[in-house]
Amino acid sequence: MNLKDRIQALALLGEELTAQADWLEAPIQAAYIENKWFTPENSRKALDAIGRQFLNAKILEEWSNSYEIEDHAYSKKIGLVLAGNIPMVGFHDVLCTFISGHTSLIKCSSKDSILLQRVIARLIEIDSNTSSYFEFVDKLAGFEAVIATGSNNSARYFEQYFGKYPHIIRKNRSAVAVLDGNESHDDFMGLGEDIFTYFGLGCRNVSKIYVPENYDFNDMLEALHEGFKELVHHNKYLNNFDYNNALFLLQKVQFLMSGSLIVTESKDITSRIATLHYEHYSDRSSLVNHLKEVENQIQCVVSNVQLDDIPTFNFGKAQQPSITDYADGVDTLEFLKSL
Predict the structure, then answer these.
(1) Is 2 left (phi over 0), alpha (psi -120 to 50) or beta?
(2) Which residues of the chain have a pLDDT value below 70?
(3) What is the DSSP track for 258-315?
(4) 191 and 93 in one domain?
(5) For the domain that residue 39 is a member of, what is the CATH number?
(6) pTM higher than 0.90 for the full model?
(7) Is there a single domain that holds both residue 108 and residue 139?
(8) Does 167 share its domain with 111?
(9) Is residue 241 a part of any domain in this protein?
(10) How far is CA 256 from the centre of its chain?
Protein backbone atom coordinates (compact mmCIF):
# COMPACT_ATOMS: atom_id res chain seq x y z
CA MET A 1 0.00 0.00 0.00
CA ASN A 2 1.16 3.52 -0.64
CA LEU A 3 0.60 6.38 1.79
CA LYS A 4 -2.51 7.61 -0.04
CA ASP A 5 -4.10 4.17 0.24
CA ARG A 6 -3.29 3.94 3.95
CA ILE A 7 -4.82 7.34 4.61
CA GLN A 8 -7.95 6.45 2.66
CA ALA A 9 -8.50 3.29 4.71
CA LEU A 10 -7.91 5.15 7.97
CA ALA A 11 -10.33 7.91 7.00
CA LEU A 12 -13.07 5.38 6.29
CA LEU A 13 -12.42 3.79 9.69
CA GLY A 14 -12.55 7.24 11.29
CA GLU A 15 -15.98 7.90 9.84
CA GLU A 16 -17.28 4.73 11.47
CA LEU A 17 -15.70 5.54 14.85
CA THR A 18 -17.17 9.04 14.81
CA ALA A 19 -20.59 7.69 13.83
CA GLN A 20 -20.34 5.06 16.61
CA ALA A 21 -21.12 2.30 14.12
CA ASP A 22 -23.11 -0.71 15.33
CA TRP A 23 -20.11 -3.07 15.21
CA LEU A 24 -18.50 -1.10 18.05
CA GLU A 25 -21.13 -1.96 20.65
CA ALA A 26 -20.08 -5.57 21.29
CA PRO A 27 -16.37 -4.78 21.90
CA ILE A 28 -17.33 -1.77 24.03
CA GLN A 29 -19.40 -4.03 26.29
CA ALA A 30 -16.70 -6.72 26.28
CA ALA A 31 -14.06 -4.15 27.26
CA TYR A 32 -16.20 -3.14 30.25
CA ILE A 33 -16.48 -6.77 31.36
CA GLU A 34 -12.70 -7.11 31.07
CA ASN A 35 -11.93 -3.83 32.88
CA LYS A 36 -14.56 -2.02 34.95
CA TRP A 37 -12.71 1.28 34.58
CA PHE A 38 -13.56 1.12 30.86
CA THR A 39 -17.16 2.17 31.12
CA PRO A 40 -19.10 2.21 27.84
CA GLU A 41 -19.25 6.00 28.10
CA ASN A 42 -15.47 6.30 28.39
CA SER A 43 -14.82 3.84 25.57
CA ARG A 44 -17.18 5.73 23.29
CA LYS A 45 -15.49 9.00 24.25
CA ALA A 46 -12.06 7.58 23.36
CA LEU A 47 -13.22 6.09 20.05
CA ASP A 48 -14.99 9.30 19.04
CA ALA A 49 -11.88 11.36 19.85
CA ILE A 50 -9.72 9.08 17.71
CA GLY A 51 -12.17 9.40 14.84
CA ARG A 52 -12.38 13.18 15.06
CA GLN A 53 -8.87 14.16 16.16
CA PHE A 54 -6.80 11.57 14.28
CA LEU A 55 -8.64 9.68 11.54
CA ASN A 56 -9.82 12.58 9.45
CA ALA A 57 -8.52 12.58 5.87
CA LYS A 58 -7.45 16.24 5.91
CA ILE A 59 -5.73 15.90 9.28
CA LEU A 60 -3.91 12.75 8.18
CA GLU A 61 -2.79 14.29 4.90
CA GLU A 62 -1.48 17.50 6.46
CA TRP A 63 0.25 15.58 9.24
CA SER A 64 1.97 13.04 6.99
CA ASN A 65 2.86 15.64 4.34
CA SER A 66 4.82 17.64 6.92
CA TYR A 67 7.16 14.64 7.31
CA GLU A 68 7.61 13.90 3.61
CA ILE A 69 7.09 10.19 4.22
CA GLU A 70 8.39 7.95 1.47
CA ASP A 71 7.08 4.48 0.69
CA HIS A 72 9.67 1.73 0.77
CA ALA A 73 9.57 -1.81 -0.55
CA TYR A 74 10.74 -3.08 2.85
CA SER A 75 8.91 -2.17 6.03
CA LYS A 76 10.56 -2.66 9.38
CA LYS A 77 8.94 -4.51 12.28
CA ILE A 78 8.25 -2.23 15.22
CA GLY A 79 7.56 -3.76 18.61
CA LEU A 80 4.84 -1.86 20.47
CA VAL A 81 4.35 -2.42 24.19
CA LEU A 82 1.10 -0.61 24.92
CA ALA A 83 -0.23 0.85 28.14
CA GLY A 84 -3.75 0.03 29.34
CA ASN A 85 -4.69 2.84 31.69
CA ILE A 86 -7.44 4.32 29.49
CA PRO A 87 -9.32 2.93 26.47
CA MET A 88 -7.32 2.78 23.22
CA VAL A 89 -4.41 4.68 24.77
CA GLY A 90 -1.90 2.90 22.55
CA PHE A 91 -3.65 3.67 19.27
CA HIS A 92 -1.49 6.68 18.42
CA ASP A 93 1.65 4.52 18.38
CA VAL A 94 -0.09 2.03 16.10
CA LEU A 95 -1.24 4.87 13.86
CA CYS A 96 2.25 6.39 13.61
CA THR A 97 3.73 3.00 12.73
CA PHE A 98 1.13 2.37 10.02
CA ILE A 99 1.39 5.85 8.51
CA SER A 100 5.18 5.52 8.35
CA GLY A 101 4.77 2.28 6.40
CA HIS A 102 6.17 -0.05 9.04
CA THR A 103 4.64 -3.20 10.52
CA SER A 104 3.38 -3.21 14.12
CA LEU A 105 4.07 -6.13 16.44
CA ILE A 106 1.50 -5.20 19.08
CA LYS A 107 1.65 -6.39 22.67
CA CYS A 108 -1.55 -5.14 24.27
CA SER A 109 -1.98 -4.51 27.94
CA SER A 110 -4.14 -7.11 29.68
CA LYS A 111 -6.31 -4.18 30.78
CA ASP A 112 -7.03 -3.08 27.20
CA SER A 113 -6.89 -6.09 24.92
CA ILE A 114 -10.28 -5.94 23.22
CA LEU A 115 -11.06 -2.56 21.66
CA LEU A 116 -7.84 -2.10 19.71
CA GLN A 117 -7.95 -5.60 18.24
CA ARG A 118 -11.52 -5.10 17.07
CA VAL A 119 -10.75 -1.67 15.58
CA ILE A 120 -7.77 -3.04 13.66
CA ALA A 121 -9.88 -6.01 12.52
CA ARG A 122 -12.41 -3.52 11.15
CA LEU A 123 -9.65 -1.63 9.32
CA ILE A 124 -8.64 -4.90 7.66
CA GLU A 125 -12.28 -5.50 6.69
CA ILE A 126 -12.33 -2.04 5.08
CA ASP A 127 -9.14 -2.77 3.13
CA SER A 128 -7.65 -6.26 3.26
CA ASN A 129 -4.29 -4.91 2.10
CA THR A 130 -3.78 -3.46 5.58
CA SER A 131 -3.58 -6.92 7.14
CA SER A 132 0.17 -7.28 6.59
CA TYR A 133 0.85 -4.18 8.71
CA PHE A 134 -0.46 -5.55 12.03
CA GLU A 135 0.33 -8.53 14.21
CA PHE A 136 -0.90 -8.97 17.77
CA VAL A 137 1.58 -10.93 19.88
CA ASP A 138 1.89 -12.23 23.43
CA LYS A 139 5.66 -11.80 23.40
CA LEU A 140 7.80 -9.54 21.25
CA ALA A 141 10.29 -11.22 18.94
CA GLY A 142 11.84 -10.40 15.58
CA PHE A 143 11.46 -6.64 15.99
CA GLU A 144 13.87 -4.00 14.69
CA ALA A 145 12.80 -1.08 16.88
CA VAL A 146 10.62 -0.66 19.96
CA ILE A 147 8.15 1.81 21.43
CA ALA A 148 7.30 0.80 25.00
CA THR A 149 5.09 2.58 27.50
CA GLY A 150 4.83 1.70 31.18
CA SER A 151 5.58 2.74 34.74
CA ASN A 152 8.88 4.09 36.04
CA ASN A 153 9.58 0.61 37.34
CA SER A 154 8.81 -1.22 34.10
CA ALA A 155 10.86 1.34 32.16
CA ARG A 156 14.01 0.03 33.84
CA TYR A 157 13.26 -3.44 32.47
CA PHE A 158 12.44 -2.00 29.06
CA GLU A 159 15.83 -0.28 29.00
CA GLN A 160 17.50 -3.58 29.83
CA TYR A 161 15.58 -5.63 27.25
CA PHE A 162 15.31 -3.11 24.42
CA GLY A 163 18.24 -0.75 24.98
CA LYS A 164 20.32 -2.12 22.12
CA TYR A 165 17.56 -1.44 19.58
CA PRO A 166 16.31 1.96 18.35
CA HIS A 167 13.64 2.76 20.93
CA ILE A 168 11.27 5.14 22.63
CA ILE A 169 10.65 4.20 26.27
CA ARG A 170 8.07 6.16 28.23
CA LYS A 171 7.67 6.45 32.00
CA ASN A 172 5.01 7.82 34.34
CA ARG A 173 3.81 11.32 33.60
CA SER A 174 0.85 13.44 34.65
CA ALA A 175 -0.67 16.77 33.74
CA VAL A 176 -0.63 19.82 36.00
CA ALA A 177 -2.69 23.01 36.07
CA VAL A 178 -1.68 26.53 37.04
CA LEU A 179 -4.34 28.77 38.58
CA ASP A 180 -4.03 32.47 39.40
CA GLY A 181 -7.34 33.16 41.18
CA ASN A 182 -9.07 34.71 38.17
CA GLU A 183 -10.68 31.50 36.90
CA SER A 184 -14.36 31.51 35.99
CA HIS A 185 -16.95 28.88 36.76
CA ASP A 186 -16.54 27.57 33.21
CA ASP A 187 -12.79 27.32 33.76
CA PHE A 188 -13.37 25.19 36.84
CA MET A 189 -15.78 22.97 34.96
CA GLY A 190 -13.15 22.55 32.27
CA LEU A 191 -10.57 21.77 34.95
CA GLY A 192 -12.95 19.11 36.21
CA GLU A 193 -12.87 17.48 32.78
CA ASP A 194 -9.08 17.56 32.91
CA ILE A 195 -9.07 15.93 36.34
CA PHE A 196 -11.89 13.41 36.06
CA THR A 197 -12.10 12.25 32.42
CA TYR A 198 -11.38 8.51 32.35
CA PHE A 199 -11.52 8.66 36.18
CA GLY A 200 -8.20 10.51 36.18
CA LEU A 201 -6.27 7.44 35.02
CA GLY A 202 -4.60 9.02 31.97
CA CYS A 203 -1.17 10.60 31.76
CA ARG A 204 -2.89 13.74 30.47
CA ASN A 205 -5.21 13.99 33.47
CA VAL A 206 -4.45 16.82 35.87
CA SER A 207 -3.15 15.34 39.11
CA LYS A 208 -1.75 18.53 40.63
CA ILE A 209 -2.57 22.22 40.64
CA TYR A 210 -0.32 25.19 41.42
CA VAL A 211 -2.09 28.04 43.19
CA PRO A 212 -1.06 31.47 44.58
CA GLU A 213 -0.46 31.99 48.28
CA ASN A 214 -3.70 32.25 50.31
CA TYR A 215 -5.71 30.79 47.45
CA ASP A 216 -9.43 30.34 48.18
CA PHE A 217 -10.48 26.85 47.04
CA ASN A 218 -14.22 27.28 47.70
CA ASP A 219 -15.34 28.23 44.17
CA MET A 220 -13.29 25.45 42.64
CA LEU A 221 -14.58 22.81 45.04
CA GLU A 222 -18.18 23.91 44.57
CA ALA A 223 -17.88 23.72 40.79
CA LEU A 224 -16.20 20.31 40.89
CA HIS A 225 -18.90 18.99 43.22
CA GLU A 226 -21.64 20.40 41.00
CA GLY A 227 -20.26 18.90 37.82
CA PHE A 228 -18.74 15.61 38.90
CA LYS A 229 -20.39 14.34 42.07
CA GLU A 230 -21.84 11.36 40.20
CA LEU A 231 -18.38 9.80 39.90
CA VAL A 232 -18.78 8.22 43.33
CA HIS A 233 -21.60 6.10 41.87
CA HIS A 234 -18.87 4.08 40.17
CA ASN A 235 -17.90 1.36 42.62
CA LYS A 236 -14.16 1.24 41.91
CA TYR A 237 -13.86 5.03 42.09
CA LEU A 238 -15.84 5.14 45.34
CA ASN A 239 -13.59 2.50 46.87
CA ASN A 240 -10.55 4.64 46.11
CA PHE A 241 -12.25 7.78 47.41
CA ASP A 242 -13.20 6.09 50.69
CA TYR A 243 -9.77 4.48 51.09
CA ASN A 244 -7.90 7.75 50.63
CA ASN A 245 -10.29 9.58 52.94
CA ALA A 246 -9.72 7.01 55.68
CA LEU A 247 -5.95 6.99 55.08
CA PHE A 248 -5.60 10.75 55.37
CA LEU A 249 -7.71 10.78 58.53
CA LEU A 250 -5.58 8.06 60.13
CA GLN A 251 -2.36 9.80 59.12
CA LYS A 252 -3.76 13.17 60.25
CA VAL A 253 -3.09 14.69 56.84
CA GLN A 254 -4.94 17.96 56.29
CA PHE A 255 -7.17 17.97 53.22
CA LEU A 256 -10.11 19.63 51.52
CA MET A 257 -12.96 17.70 49.97
CA SER A 258 -15.69 17.94 47.40
CA GLY A 259 -18.24 15.19 46.88
CA SER A 260 -15.91 13.26 44.60
CA LEU A 261 -12.39 14.58 45.20
CA ILE A 262 -9.90 14.91 48.03
CA VAL A 263 -7.47 17.84 47.71
CA THR A 264 -4.26 17.84 49.73
CA GLU A 265 -0.98 19.76 49.69
CA SER A 266 1.97 17.82 48.30
CA LYS A 267 5.20 18.30 46.37
CA ASP A 268 4.45 15.15 44.34
CA ILE A 269 3.21 15.57 40.76
CA THR A 270 1.25 12.33 40.59
CA SER A 271 -1.70 11.80 42.91
CA ARG A 272 -3.75 8.71 43.70
CA ILE A 273 -7.18 8.07 42.20
CA ALA A 274 -9.83 10.43 43.62
CA THR A 275 -7.19 12.81 45.00
CA LEU A 276 -5.67 16.05 43.72
CA HIS A 277 -2.42 17.59 44.93
CA TYR A 278 -1.80 21.31 45.23
CA GLU A 279 1.27 23.46 45.81
CA HIS A 280 1.54 27.20 46.38
CA TYR A 281 3.73 29.47 44.28
CA SER A 282 4.94 32.94 45.22
CA ASP A 283 5.65 34.41 41.78
CA ARG A 284 5.31 33.36 38.18
CA SER A 285 9.01 33.41 37.38
CA SER A 286 9.92 30.93 40.11
CA LEU A 287 6.97 28.75 39.11
CA VAL A 288 8.20 28.59 35.50
CA ASN A 289 11.67 27.61 36.72
CA HIS A 290 10.14 24.89 38.88
CA LEU A 291 8.02 23.50 36.04
CA LYS A 292 11.10 23.30 33.85
CA GLU A 293 12.97 21.42 36.60
CA VAL A 294 10.24 18.75 36.77
CA GLU A 295 9.31 18.72 33.08
CA ASN A 296 10.28 15.04 32.75
CA GLN A 297 7.35 14.24 35.08
CA ILE A 298 4.80 16.41 33.29
CA GLN A 299 2.82 15.41 30.20
CA CYS A 300 1.12 18.77 29.69
CA VAL A 301 0.24 22.00 31.50
CA VAL A 302 -3.28 23.45 31.69
CA SER A 303 -3.72 27.16 32.38
CA ASN A 304 -5.03 30.54 31.31
CA VAL A 305 -1.75 32.03 32.57
CA GLN A 306 1.11 32.89 30.23
CA LEU A 307 4.11 30.84 31.34
CA ASP A 308 6.93 32.16 29.14
CA ASP A 309 7.96 29.40 26.71
CA ILE A 310 6.00 26.60 28.41
CA PRO A 311 3.14 25.48 26.12
CA THR A 312 -0.26 25.28 27.78
CA PHE A 313 -3.68 23.82 27.06
CA ASN A 314 -6.95 25.58 27.78
CA PHE A 315 -9.07 24.25 30.62
CA GLY A 316 -11.03 21.21 29.50
CA LYS A 317 -8.62 20.36 26.67
CA ALA A 318 -5.95 18.21 28.38
CA GLN A 319 -7.62 14.98 27.30
CA GLN A 320 -8.24 16.23 23.77
CA PRO A 321 -4.77 15.93 22.22
CA SER A 322 -4.23 16.67 18.54
CA ILE A 323 -2.46 14.21 16.29
CA THR A 324 0.82 16.11 16.84
CA ASP A 325 0.66 16.12 20.65
CA TYR A 326 3.20 13.36 21.12
CA ALA A 327 3.53 11.56 24.44
CA ASP A 328 6.50 12.79 26.50
CA GLY A 329 7.16 15.38 23.80
CA VAL A 330 9.00 12.79 21.67
CA ASP A 331 8.06 12.95 17.99
CA THR A 332 7.03 9.36 17.36
CA LEU A 333 6.52 9.74 13.62
CA GLU A 334 9.93 11.38 13.14
CA PHE A 335 11.52 8.49 15.05
CA LEU A 336 9.79 5.93 12.84
CA LYS A 337 10.50 7.82 9.61
CA SER A 338 14.21 7.95 10.40
CA LEU A 339 14.60 4.17 10.86
Answers:
(1) beta
(2) 73
(3) -SS-EEEE-S-S---TTEEEEEEES-HHHHHHHHHHTGGGEEEEEESS--TT---B-T
(4) no
(5) 3.40.605.10
(6) yes
(7) yes
(8) yes
(9) yes
(10) 27
